[in-house]
Amino acid sequence: MAKKKKATKKAAKKKTTKKAAKKKTTKKAAKKKVTKKKATKKAAKKKTTKKAAKKKTTKKATKKAAKKKTTKKAAKKKTTKKAAKKKTKRKPNPAFMKPLEPSAALAAVVGSKPLPRTQVVKKLWAYIKKNNLQDAKNRRNINADSKLKPVFGKAQVSMFEMTKIVSKHLK
Length: 171
Fold this sequence. Notes:
rod-shaped, 2 strands, 2 domains, mainly alpha
């Protein structure tokens, strides 16, 4: 009887080991299937990522090229601006600096020496301020006194008209 029990135990062990082996093989087969699926998924992902990477690199390349173009343009603009800034030192117009002879009427106010147009206007304003000839209500108007009346030709002149009228008295 003991031998039968041992035989049945051995048979049971063999069955269980066969079942375990079958389970292992099925598990291995399932694992292989899963790994194959994973491998195919990974391959698909790699393809898509490669395509995306190619797109990104082409986009980046085009962006970089565009940036380079814009930076080159910006650099050109900056250099032109710097050149323009260097030219900001203005030279006075030689026509303004040319000494002109004032008429007899204007000479009574500014003097008889030949003066540039700018200096004539400067001296006229000095005379106007010294003698308080600006209109009290409308400061743009200048009231002519006995010396300025022959220059202006009327009793009151606006400051914008004044330079036009004075230019007629300079030769």
